[in-house]
Amino acid sequence: MTILDWGMLVIPLLFLATSIFYTKRHMRSVTDFLAAGRTARRYLLTSANGLAGYGLITLVAGTQVFYHAGWAVSWWNNAATFVLAVLCISGYVTYRFRETRALTMGQYFEMRFSRRYRIFMGLICWLSGVINYGIFPAVAANFFISFLRLPSTLCGIGTFPLLMCLFLGGALLIAATGGQIQNIVSDTIQSIFCYGMSIAVAITILVLLDKSAFHEVLTSQPPGESYINPFDTAGVKDLNFWWIMINIYGCVSGYGAWQGNQGYAVSALTPHEAKMGGILSTWRMISVAFFALMLSLGGLTVAKATAFAEISREASAYLSANFIPATADQMTLTTCLAAILPVGIKGMLVAVMFFLMLSTDTSYLHSWGSILVQDVIIPTYGKRLPQRTHLWLIRLSMVLVAVFALCFSLFYRQSEYIQLFQMLTGCIFAAGAGCAILGGLYWRRGTTQGVWAASLLGVCISLFNVVLLDARGWHTVREFLLGFFPENQTLLEAVERCPVNAAILSFCTTLLAQATFIIVSLCTSKTPYNLEKLLHRGAYADQETLARQAAESQEHAIPWYVRFFLGFDKEFTLSDKIVALSVSLWTYGWAAAFLLITLWNVLAYFLPGISQWSPEWWFNYFWFFLLANLVLAPVTALWMAWGSLKDIFFMFKLLKVRKVDESDDGMVEKP
After folding, report:
1. What phi, psi does 158 have (nearest 5°)?
2. Which of 13, 96, 201, 267 sits 20 to 30 Å CA-CA off 193?
3. d(CA 197, CA 186)
4. Average of pLDDT values for 461-485?
5. pTM for this prediction
């Protein structure tokens, strides 16, 4: 790293530090700390939330998947992208949750079910979240150590724990100073810098590495392990077609359950702004996805192409000598890529990764710290706390989360891929919470007994599954099972890790929880639940709802299929419709290509007159996809940056003039 490289990181950090001192004066209440006073419009929501939700660990996990499965598995991910786009466009869960006026998901649980369920699920949500977050500091520290080739000690202190302490300390400073207001502003500032830097890094990789090198790497895999042909991946384990299908099912059934960035779910100015923020996320993701793809493709090319064989061998030797196998596997592509990046660009990549890490850390510390207080401590206490006491309690809770993450990263020995570990730890909460969210917002027959049964079952099975994925935990379980089945070949071969991967374990756990919820609810439901009261509709409409209904009454009814596939509703302006239509055309266009090409290749198995696509055809399609994203990435990045700056000033204007309601602190009053 040269002075120019360090400047790429330091200059944005100065802007960030300035924003901290300016923003903290606007934080005056618990609502401000938890939900930014509910003043965020669509561009703030999509930019800040997008950066917080797509952290450094997500990129590292993505490179690990690419290292083992190449682009082929991404083909099946088109189905997931299509499903998620439909969910975002339709306002699935997001719109109804915002209508409840709940500050946290736990508050909604109390409103819909009971206080005891809120307390229990708040504790489980916190436990699931901090375990999931527990490997974040380790992955971040290992990335910077391996990418920058840092020594094992700095100033006589181990580099690994030192970096984790510095990263967590900086994130705590931001999150505890101004809460969600500070998170939104700092994440937005970081996202604006990341838009430009990530595109510059991606284009540089594309220019540095020849197209023929990409072609060589993607088309030279042995049969059954193709990096480019999704129909030639029978030999790929774990990160394959079935993993994607399980992911899709989990996204639909547990939509809204994950609370790592729950502050953004309640920060929207209106339900409509929350919905538009979700719609814009498709365009916001273009630049991030292009950067992630080029990071993975560039790293894989350096690691596998014959022209870079010496660099690959040296990187492999370095990783083997300094990291355990699981960590070395995670860092292979980024370590290889570091050797070829020019001055300035390397600094940009470090800055982007640092901001991705910082934004996720601040959001997760805020979320898990808030959830422990809002959904466990205060409901258990049963009384409203003074504002000052309430805020300091949340800050202390954030410190507890940071300490837990530090300790977990120091002692947990992960044996599973990052993506699969995140699926399983998220399932601890999501298996039951998905039932409570969908069954509570959309099904009048969902009962408190049903969600209790589903959640208890999901928690017990998921925690046991987490033990199986720890190397030492699996060794203990394996020895126990061998005592009963000493000749079992599967147990004898599975020395280092559980033979059943985390995706299958989480899928089975989710199905069992959902079946339990439906059966118990049907058995215990006596009268349908009053959803109108929960959602402030009909006779229970408040001032916000009445104002929206007044505007809606002047418009014509919109057909259901337009609402579902294009997202239009009666609050959409002309510009909203144009944005939603552009997202729909982009998403459904790629979805149509996915369906037609997949159908062609499936039919080729059965019809003699049709030939399956060759690796050359698949590479040409991949190259077209890459260039399409290259063209749109700068355009969408400028669009998002402009909208985000405009919405920041609008938020500050609202924060100055709004009235502080100290009773709006997440406490549910007894009727």
Report:
1. -55, 130
2. 267
3. 17
4. 82
5. 0.82
What is the pLDDT at residue 664? Answer: 55
Read off the tokens for 308. 């870079």
Residue with tokens 């939509």: 255
- Which residues partner with 268 through β-bridges? 40
Q: Is pLDDT larger for residue 340 or for residue 50? A: 340
Angle at 375 between CA 369 and CA 379, to 5 degrees: 130
- What is d(CA 111, CA 437) in angstroms, rounded to the nearest whole number? 12
Torsion of CA 606, 611, 616, 617, to 10 degrees: -90
Q: What are phi and psi of 40, to 5 degrees?
A: -85, 130
The four Cα atoms 485, 491, 492, 493 give a dihedral, to 10 degrees, of 160
Among all chains, which residue has been given the structure tokens 């100290």? Answer: 662
- What are 634's two structure tokens? 């700068």
- Provide the 10 A C-beta neighbour count for residue 592: 11
* Torsion angle defined by CA atoms of residues 199, 295, 286 and 38, in that order, rounded to the nearest 10 degrees: -90
Convert 78-128 into a string of H (helix), E (strand) and C (coil). Answer: HHHHHHHHHHHHHCCCHHHHHHCCCCCHHHHHHHHCCHHHHHHHHHHHHHH
User: For residues 170 and 163, is the Cβ–Cβ distance under 8 A?
Assistant: no
Tell me the percentage of the chain whose pLDDT exceeds 70: 92
Cβ atoms within 10 Å of 182's Cβ, excluding its own? 26
| CA–CA separation, 367 and 354 (whole Å) | 20
Distance CA 633, CA 629 (A): 6
Six-digit token string for 211:
């197209």
Cβ-in-10-Å burial (0-12, 13-18, 19+) of 326 comes to: middle
Does residue 302 carry a pLDDT above 90?
A: yes
Q: Tens digits of per-residue pLDDT, 557-609?
A: 666 667 666 767 777 888 888 888 888 888 888 888 988 999 999 888 888 77
Residue 544: per-residue pLDDT:
65
pLDDT score for 303: 92
* 486's tokens: 């000493």
**Do 66 and 239 contact (CB within 8 A), yes or no?**
no
